[in-house]
Model the fold of this input.
Amino acid sequence: MKVGIVKEIKPFESRVGMTPDGVGALVRLGHDIFLQAGAGEGCGYPDKEYREAGARILKDPAVVWKAASIIVKVKEPQAKEYAYLRPGQFIFTFFHLATDKRLAEALVKSRATAIAYEMVQDDDGSLPILAPMSQAAGKLAVQMGGYLLTKPAGGKGILLGGVGEYGRGRVVVLGTGNVGIAAMERAVALGAEVSMFGRDENRMARLRAAHPGRVQVEPLTVGRITAQLPAADLLIGAVSVPGARAPIVVPRNAVSRMAPGSVIVDVAIDQGGCIATSKPTTHAKPTYVANGVIHYAVTNMPAAVPRTSSLGLAAKTMPFLQKMAALGIENAVRIDPALARGIVAADGVIRNENVARAHRMRWKPWP
Done:
């Protein structure tokens, strides 16, 4: 297997698709690794470590893309990279195609095979590759939200954990998946008052049992959410549907009920956002104010902690890469249902119904 690792070119994206340890593991199995020079430097992995692990270092990204049978990335190919896509090549990365029609069309035109990290799904419905990034984003949502609530940042002057029994902040978390749970646990650990809203009754029951008296868990409805917003200091949006655009669960008029200087962190923004007033931002300019409320909607939140995120991501992608190495990429995808569910485009056709519906494109199940 010929594996290509390219440097991410999305602004302020410093994560890398594979660590030197992962490179060494595949090289020892007899596989070829091509690394674009500087790909790991943003998260503390110099080219020297990759070279010592057995990777071949190449300066030109075009050469890496051409040499590799599978490209291992972190974020979706950017417009400048569309020209590198080609038939028969596999791209293993996050795609979030439901909000990116241009990329969906480029994949169809190229006839490359796209395996989306966020769509690789085990039989129990869990998303093993997405999980560590969701946990990172959930924790960061509270960390960033807490900072934005400080007066110098333009916030209300609230310390989420309060001081002793006084002045504790109120956090509202939308969604009970990995992002929501990570955010809730971090907010609880800080000492904030926390309310959660979800749709999975079994999971909601488990959360109530695990945090009796500390977390208020309710069914997710617009009315229930809206009733909580006047007292909320921090609202965290973490509602999404795999492969589809995130549903809007907080309308604009509900946001207007929040007090000036309150904060919204919409983690679902990489799938379009679940709050009506959200729009994508970047790490260079992460916030804006709408309806008097500070909004943080960075589409690649875990890139703020690239070292941690790269380690967590690599730990989850490596078992799948080792399986591809052992069986061959095509055989591994055919044998492993989790990998097969991750295919969102192949042979010039969209392979995920939610993506196709989002863009009104033709689709066909894989294979």
